[in-house]
Amino acid sequence: MDIMNNKLVLPLIVTNIFAGGCFVEAKPEFNSKAAWAELNTTVKSQYAYIDRANFDVIALIKEFELRALSAKNKKDFADIAQQFVRHFYDPHLNLGPYDENDFSVSPTGSDLWGLYQNEKFIIEDVKAQAAADSAGIRPGAEIITIDSLPVRAAVESVFGKSFEKLNTAQINYGLNVSLGGKRHKTRMLELKINNSTQSFNLAPSYQSINDLNNGPTLSYKKLNDIGYIRFNNALGNMKTVEAFKHALTELVDTKSLIIDLRNTPSGGNTGVAEPILGHFVKTKTPYQQYQVQEENTSYRNAQMQQAYVEPTKPHYNKPIVVLAGRWTGSMGEGMTIGFDAIGAKTVIGSEMADLLGGIKTVQLTHSNTWLEVGFERLFHMNNTYREDFVPHIKVTPADTGINGKDPALLMAQKYIKNNQHTWKF
After folding, report:
1. How does pLDDT run across 266-293, given as a tens digit for each residue?
2. What is the biggest distance separating any 2 CA atoms in the chain, rounded to whole angstroms?
3. Cis peptide bond upstream of 107, omega within 30
4. How far, in Å, CA of 256 to CA of 206, rounded?
5. Are 292 and 357 in contact (CB under 8 A)?
6. Which of 92, 116, 118, 124 minimizes the C-alpha distance to 168?
7. What is the C-alpha separation between 234 and 221, in angstroms, rounded?
8. Cellular component terms, GO, for this chain's entry (predicted)?
9. 191 neighbors 197 (Cβ within 8 angstroms)
10. Helix, strand, coil percentages, rounded to 5, for the chain
11. How far is residue 343 from each of residues 155, 285, 325, 423, measured CA to CA in Å?
12. Which of 27, 36, 149, 190 is most deeply buried (CB count within 10 A of its CB)?
């Protein structure tokens, strides 16, 4: 008998397992090294705002490379990668998919804006008609705990890093991510108000913004001889274009117009924004500039390009005033600087949401994740960065005053009353 012909030879790699009467493909082992290399390369080559960071990016990459390589599976890797990208304090730089334990995406999942000042965490603004506003929270309250965590610990959980190792921009970003809470979960806050501590149980931060999906894309009314149009977070909905046209037709006999962009946290697209801006120009007019970051080519070496609006009927030739604030995001920010460029009398409000650039989504195959990344760097027509724009008349808070009233709208009405006698049209 030939022994060699009867030898049992086992395969070196088992790719299938026989179970329950069928072959089941074995899951390949997670390759954390390949997953990190893919994420790292994407951020460095395609993120147009990487040089904006006011910290040592190389050191951050080295730190998180060690963490990422220790990931045992794709879920662990995604959690680590999310902490990594949050260090850039850019609400447009996001990594998913998300689960129920992930934070809400700011500023859409946000109804409070806080700041770290003099070693205290203070509510600076409250989003109008959202859960925190309905609960009676007002600017000036000191934040003591967020979901039972001391605020410093809550901020640390956003980054996976001790509070002392974070810079001021990161602390403020982490604070506001924390205030938004976990996705679709209620939030518990302890606030110090007039030297007494009060507890607030708030609805999930997405609830009020989701409720807008069942209502009109915008609201409008007359304030005596002033027209007022407020967008309801629908700059990505093409129905908004016709709704705005209808509103403008109804307000055509007003002597001036207030455009309220303070409720646009989810941004939108140019297909909606440009026809709206077109109602205020008589000829093809540039409203913003941009440079595109491509793989292996920095946006700094890219040609500066201009985005234009074409005239749209009906044309409104009366003075306009624009309102902006912490929940003016992305395309809302683009429209704000666009209105400023095409001739708005002024912009009133607070600093905006700073959602950086025009974004795209990159699929990361080694980790089964995706990365939203700003690959277009956006500019005002005066050549300044969009994120550096500050309203001409600063009103803080811009959404909800300490007395519960609307400070930016009141300022706009006052501004128009004091200046309309000098306007010619």
Report:
1. 999 999 999 999 999 999 999 999 998 7
2. 113
3. yes
4. 34
5. no
6. 116
7. 18
8. outer membrane-bounded periplasmic space
9. yes
10. 35, 25, 40
11. 41, 11, 19, 13
12. 36
Residues 6+ apart with CB under 8 A from 288: 306, 307, 334, 337, 338, 341, 378, 379, 380, 381, 386
Contact 399, 327 (CB under 8 A): yes
Q: Which CATH class is domain 112-204?
A: mainly beta
Closest listed residue to residue 126, CA positions, set 140, 138, 136 = 138
Residue ranges of domains in the chain: 32-96, 112-204, 209-422
Per-residue pLDDT of the chain (425 residues; tens, 9 = 90+): 333 333 333 334 444 444 445 555 556 689 999 999 999 999 999 999 998 999 999 999 999 999 999 999 999 999 999 999 999 999 999 999 999 899 999 999 999 999 999 999 999 999 999 999 999 999 999 999 999 999 999 999 999 999 999 999 999 999 999 999 999 899 999 999 999 999 999 999 888 888 888 899 999 999 999 999 999 999 999 999 999 999 999 999 999 999 999 999 999 999 999 999 999 999 999 999 999 877 677 778 888 999 999 999 999 999 999 999 999 999 999 999 999 999 999 999 999 999 999 999 999 999 999 999 999 999 999 999 999 999 999 999 999 999 999 999 999 999 999 998 888 76
State the CATH class of domain 209-422. alpha beta
Query: How many Cβ atoms sit within 10 Å of the Cβ of residue 377?
Result: 25
Strand segments (E) across 186-255: 187-193, 196-202, 218-223, 226-231
- 10 Å Cβ neighbour count for 198? 15
Q: DSSP labels for 103-169?
A: BPPTTTT-SEEEEEETTEEEEEEE-TTSHHHHTT--TTPEEEEETTEEHHHHHHHHHTS-GGGS-HH
Written as one letter, the residue type at 45 is S
The answer to whether the CB of 137 falls within 8 A of the CB of 116 is: no
3-state secondary structure at position 41: helix
Residue 408, CA atoms < 13 Å, CB-side half-sphere: 34
Q: Would you state the structure tokens that stand for residue 1, as one six-digit string?
A: 């008998």
